[in-house]
């Protein structure tokens, strides 16, 4: 087991990526379908965020694990970690119940259908868009650890994850799945009816968590200059890919070149040699608050709109959402450092 080490570059990176996720959802909800930002922010840049989050989580989890004779000890660490993630998922799903109720009420659903729909989404995806990451992370960490603990080689786990990612990529992107044979399209529709999306711990999470495992157990890492150069190249490849597979108003969730781009971006951030400071730890906490809570600010803005004198456009909406989200995250992090607010740490 490795000694604890601080990674300020990753803390800063996670903060900016969390803001990018929040802006992705701002674009999806408030921007016009013809806006250029749907391609640039929604389909291109923001698709780096969750892969990096998966890699980071896998990296820090597997740095704690010994493997081999430490299997029983590792099992307790993994189960405790996955249990904490799932508990967080349940808590935030409950916290978002007023939003779910609001959506159900205005959708004029039958109560029974609304409850069944909520349970279906809760079990197989999430009831609020960004929360899908939590059960996906827990499942992916559990499966990757299980394979590694059974002495499956790391490169084999990464390869299996890559195949699953490719399957999810082809199944989720209209550019490819509309070209499937009719029978395969019907099978995909059946899968979506039951499991809702391939963006989950199996078709998405296993690969990126296994990259975290690879990075945690590899002694040699890319130098800062090499990782930075690799990121810039693959980031450009992501843009070319997104231009090809995206249409106006579409939401692209899988980008294949996000895999090497996220790997290089993580490696570059991890290689940054800044002196550890309390500010970086606070940014880490803020990133989690921003990621988990930002959807509430969308609804608050909408509910307060009749009394809001500021005209609504892409720029003002972005400012009216992101500024309160960031300020609130900072306040909650500082409050959690006090004795009275220490309980807030249990929410992230």
Summarize the structure in words.
The protein is an all-alpha fold and 348 residues long. Helix content is 72%, strand content 0%. It has helices at 8-30, 37-44, 49-63, 71-95, 97-107, 111-124, 133-149, 154-172, 174-177, 182-195, 201-217, 224-245, 258-270, 278-303, 314-336. The two termini are 25 Å apart. The relative contact order is 0.15. The model has no long low-confidence stretch (mean pLDDT 91).
The outline comes out as globular
Mean of residue pLDDT values: 91
Identify low-pLDDT runs: none
Largest sheet: none
Distance between the termini: 25 Å
Contiguous helical run count: 15
What is the number of E strands? 0
N-to-C series of helices and strands: HHHHHHHHHHHHHHH
Decide which structural class fits the backbone: mainly alpha
Q: Percent of residues in beta strands? A: under 5%
Name the helicity range: over 70%
Radius of gyration: 20 Å
